[in-house]
Amino acid sequence: MSRNNSHKFIIISLILLVSLTCLYLWHIRKTGVSDDFFAMDTIMSLQAYGKDADKAVSEAREAILGLDAALSVTNKDSSVYRLNSTGSCSLNEDLQYLLERSIQIQEMTGGAFNICIYPIMKEWGFTEKNYKVPEEAVILELCKLVNGSKITIDTTADSVSLSEDAMIDLGGIAKGYASMKARDILKAHGINSALINLGGNVCAVGKKPDGSPFSIAIKDPEPDDTGENTFTGVLKVSDKCVITSGGYERYFEEDGVTYHHIIDPSTGYPAASGLKSVTVVSDDPTLADALSTAVYVMGKDRAVGLWRTMRDRFDLVLLSDTGQLYITEGLKDCFSSKLEYYIIE
Ligand code: ADP
Ligand code: MG
């Protein structure tokens, strides 16, 4: 190749390289990068738009998988497993944050949220999917244990300990925290448009690439046969998390009775507060996840009482067992539904 030709070759190659890179970046900005995987016992999906989306999404996925491994009650190598089996373990940033928030939310919800619920979850077989209806006397004893349990955090020694026989389960708050971590990672990579969906725990980062808000549908717990009314409602949001809990998510049947996985710590039985589904909308996914579980236990009136004391921190969509739909005032401009609904002020 002559000198002239080799120059031409280099220039054409460079132009091609730059064009392909631009095309790739344009493609990512427009269609985004998405990743679906299984963690924390559910299907998760991350979708991000922006220059660094590829790297950001894979980092977020790794962080979620790491949290899953560290917080699982069944993984023998996890901190939580160690804490439950020996009564103490060393603290790390994630565990400390989760424990402190859990204790705070337990107080805020009058004990409706209580991570010391684990012995009762285990007795019902929800942890290992070996479901059974426990003896009433056993439940009564376990309730005393759950409600009397203490978690002692020692930040000087960087350790946490549990009172005798106590065991914790972060299943009601871990996904919310994982979505907060994922959101932080995406933002650190400069992503300002993304959707994080951790098995129904949905967080919108910014707006959609076209500048419109994300539409997040709330699943109908009992969709009709026509397949038409599959959503209770739709929320149009940006920079908000929408987290739903309901007894229809995990349950078993025995002798024609359905038993689900959200337990009322005051009775030891699946919560029966008159609600079918609870959605919490908040900037704070850790709070929203724990509250969605707690409000399902508390029922509408207690939940509304709590909302009135901190209405700037979260909003609610509540579907009652009898099909009545309620939203709190903060959602009135972003919620829509085919069903009639009441606005709580
Ligand atoms: P999902 O995990 O199906 O999204 P939730 O966020 O409502 O639903 O969490 C349910 C999980 O929370 C249960 O599987 C259990 O691990 C835990 N849990 C159940 N009842 C309580 C409770 N009263 N307080 C705290 N955690 C609970
Ligand atoms: Mg929850």
Description:
With 345 residues, the chain is an alpha+beta fold. Among the domains are: 74-162, T-fold (Orthogonal Bundle), CATH 1.10.3980; 213-344, Roll (T-fold), CATH 3.10.520.10. The chain has helices at 3-31, 53-71, 79-86, 93-108, 118-123, 136-148, 174-188, 285-298, 300-309, and strands at residues 33-39, 42-49, 88-90, 151-154, 159-162, 193-198, 201-206, 214-219, 231-237, 241-245, 251-254, 257-260, 275-282, 315-320, 325-328, 335-336, 341-344. Helix 2 runs antiparallel to helix 7, helix 4 (93-108) packs parallel to helix 8 and helix 7 runs antiparallel to helix 8 (285-298). The mean pLDDT is 93. Adenosine-5'-diphosphate is lined by residues 113-115, 117, 121, 126, 169, 171-172, 200, 245, 249-250, 261-263, 265, 289, 292-293, 297.
Topology:
Layout: H1 3-31, E1 33-39, E2 42-49, H2 53-71, H3 79-86, E3 88-90, H4 93-108, H5 118-123, H6 136-148, E4 151-154, E5 159-162, H7 174-188, E6 193-198, E7 201-206, E8 214-219, E9 231-237, E10 241-245, E11 251-254, E12 257-260, E13 275-282, H8 285-298, H9 300-309, E14 315-320, E15 325-328, E16 335-336, E17 341-344
Parallel strand pairs: 15-17
Antiparallel strand pairs: 1-2, 2-6, 3-5, 4-5, 6-7, 7-10, 8-9, 9-16, 10-13, 11-12, 13-14, 14-15
Helix pairs in contact: 2-7, 4-8, 7-8
Salient structural properties:
345 residues; alpha+beta; T-fold; 3-stranded antiparallel sheet; 9 helices; globular; binds adenosine-5'-diphosphate; binds magnesium ion
